[in-house]
Write a structure and sequence with these properties.
This protein is mostly helical and about 170 residues long. About 65% of the residues lie in helices and about 5% in strands. The longest helix is centred in the first third of the chain and has 67 residues.
């Protein structure tokens, strides 16, 4: 028999059994309460994650829209001394675009050659001084094209030196 049943007084066994039953009920209530708290916390975390995803998506969309608006505003803002009609001009097509690109290429290579080592922002500033109203994106694209063709050498991000100094055939 168990050691609790060996006690001669039945009252002592009942007290011990009652204490254990009471403790078991309290622990059962605590376990249910804790399980409810865990469930609520898990639901709270899910809601917070969903909110974070929504806010992140909205922030990304806002940033893309802001970037697009800034670019459009930059594209629409006339250069110093420019005419209002320049806001609505159409981009050059065919031979005009090739001529502009060739002009940019010559200006860029001459500038980099004279500087020995220079930055993209200095190149853009120089070309815009020579060709008021020229777009940063157009100049930047030409710098990238010259670097791809080996006419400029990219030392690090945004830093260039002159590359192959032979005249271009195309």
């Amino acid at each position: 028999m168990s050691r609790y049943l060996r006690v001669k007084a039945t009252g002592e066994v009942m007290v011990h059994k009652t204490y254990l039953l009471s403790s078991a009920r309290q622990l059962d209530e605590l376990a249910r309460y804790d399980a409810r708290l865990v469930s609520e916390a898990v639901e709270g975390v899910r809601a917070a994650q969903l909110h974070l995803e929504q806010v992140t998506l909205r922030a990304d969309a806002s940033q893309r829209a802001l970037t697009a608006v800034r670019k459009r505003l930059h594209d629409l803002t006339p250069a110093a001394g420019g005419e209002q009609d320049e806001l609505f001009r159409t981009p050059p097509k065919g031979d005009e675009a090739e001529a502009a690109r060739t002009t940019f290429a010559v200006a860029i290579r001459d500038f980099v050659r004279s500087q020995k080592r220079t930055t993209r922002s200095d190149i853009i500033r120089h070309v815009q001084e020579l060709h008021p109203g020229s777009k940063t994106t157009s100049i930047s694209s030409e710098v990238a094209r010259l670097a791809r063709r080996g006419r400029l050498v990219r030392l690090q991000r945004g830093v260039y030196v002159i590359g192959d100094d032979r005249p271009e055939k195309d």
